[in-house]
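Colleagues,

Please find the record for the four-part complex below.
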Amino acid sequence: MDEDGSARPQTAVTADDVARRAGVSRWTVNRAFKKDASISARSREKVLSAAAELGYVPDLLAASLASSRSRLVALLIDDFANPHKLVMLERLTRILQHAGWDTLLVNMLSEDDGRDALMNASQRRVDAAILIGIQFDDKVLAAALGARRVRKLIIFARSSQNAETISIAVDDVAAMTEITSHVIDRGYARPMFLAGPQTYSAHLLRKETFVAQWTARVGRAPEVISVETYDPARAFDRVHQVLAPRNGRGLPDVLVCENDALAIGAIDAVRHKLGLRVPEDIAVTGFDDVPLASSPNYRLTTYRQPLTAMANRIVEILNEDREPGNHCDFLGQIVSRDSA
Amino acid sequence: MDEDGSARPQTAVTADDVARRAGVSRWTVNRAFKKDASISARSREKVLSAAAELGYVPDLLAASLASSRSRLVALLIDDFANPHKLVMLERLTRILQHAGWDTLLVNMLSEDDGRDALMNASQRRVDAAILIGIQFDDKVLAAALGARRVRKLIIFARSSQNAETISIAVDDVAAMTEITSHVIDRGYARPMFLAGPQTYSAHLLRKETFVAQWTARVGRAPEVISVETYDPARAFDRVHQVLAPRNGRGLPDVLVCENDALAIGAIDAVRHKLGLRVPEDIAVTGFDDVPLASSPNYRLTTYRQPLTAMANRIVEILNEDREPGNHCDFLGQIVSRDSA
DNA sequence: GCGCAATTTGCACGCGCGTGCAAGATCATT
DNA sequence: AATGATCTTGCACGCGCGTGCAAATTGCGC
């Protein structure tokens, strides 16, 4: 919509060009683009229209270099098999963008230990790193924080005991207590817990809570099995492997899964490998409420995390100057469907 | 002017610091970090060890500013309901990272028309924008290319007729021809095609190809229905809505779906709303081979795109100086499972 | 109109590194 | 040992904008 006829399509138009055209100084131009800068309405108007004519937009790269603030966060993931990650990505990027933060997506699957990924992000001067994967061990955290290359390390949807990190997660104890009650109230008596990978730094308390609650209220400890990634296919294999030999004698009557990814694989195994019905023969519960959980195939009883509120908390933390308390717990809600 | 003046290990150590310690000039330091720079093995060694001691890493921000090359690409998505996107994200980021490119994830769901998203990316000086969504209409493309803010516009997994863009996609005609043959060979006679959103700029030729092929080979045109997003839930509703009234009289015997997201919703509807079996009563085919397609629940006959090769092509294009031909077709392979 | 305060504007300097070239060092050859 | 030829190193300048302050302008009451 704006070609002044001069043939220079490629030229990076800078604040100086706009300044010249608007008859002000370069600094006034940049002020016009700053939200709460001290500038008169008239000059801002002049500058903005001149900028529009020239097609100028401030260069965030140069701004970042000068201010050492990039409004860029790194999002580190190592868990692409879990469909919930797509939901998280959408929610996080949308809310961060809305608040003026851009997102650098870092795939940690290919890195040996995640160190490289963090290093990489730090070279871009990200203002924070958000971890939404699982394999973040203490070495990685220590490396990141020790080198002080990343100023804020936010662990999302998992709890961290590390005092240097900020973790934003649902209250696993409250959530799992609710699920335990749900299972007990429905009259299930022989539960088996299906857990995901057990990591140190970024923890989930679901297994511990379920085991403790069940033991306390029923009087005996539940069975527990686990898989090394949140992959439905892994859960499928594991459930088949564990339950098939016991088919006909002493099967559990409910599979309590650490999340929906595992629950979906578990349901498939129960139906298609054991030839049993869900929930009539074996009930299943999940966690996360992924889109597939509401499909008529699964009708999964699960627990929904308040992702929007949690993402908004990230924005608050990013906007704060000093690091706040290192832990935020949120409460979600159980979603009761047919699977349990 | 930072706060507490306490001993700060962070320091933002620069090339100058390393240079001083290594007894060379700053430029030699930066050369040590450049792959094919002219530098003697001895000085590189000196520099690297000095850098290691100080914890120095080159600042990509400053490098980008100075060289006007950021090795950063924007990945624009507006289609988070389609599980295939998670697969694409993983593959693309992994391969791009491996080749030294970082990825800025831009969520276009919240933008009015995508213009803002592109503008945003351009302010970060991305070297290219990769579109893997669907709603990119000509206005957006024109805006992006007209302003020349983005030097390379790559449309991934869709075809574009726009001469200014580069599109990397599977050969829809070849793929759909293969699927059509598969369907005909299996003896199906009353197909219905389930299409996704019809966009102008970034096109899929699947529907057109199937309709043309079927008509040519069987002698009559197949039915076609469509939904406005690649969301299994939408497909579920639509299939239910269209087929339920016809249950018992004149149902199709195969649903050919534009991709797996739609196919999965379609299967659920056939089973749980129509109470019919797949494939015995109605067969279903998809496209993409998402992880769920191999689950025992769906056993979906589908078509796998060579994502790795396609992603590698992106890397090639990014590394090239001048824009190459604007269209790359790839061949995938049909994956025959039980659903058709 | 005057004086003072509040607002608005301009500016020197620096953020950390790349580019292109020229000076310096090294090596093989005669 | 001298001469180029080759490899290696150093450097001035600029990328586009922020910061903090000083200078210029405006507003206001009288």
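Chain B touches chain A through 63 residues (CB under 8 Å).

Comments are welcome before we finalize the supplementary table.
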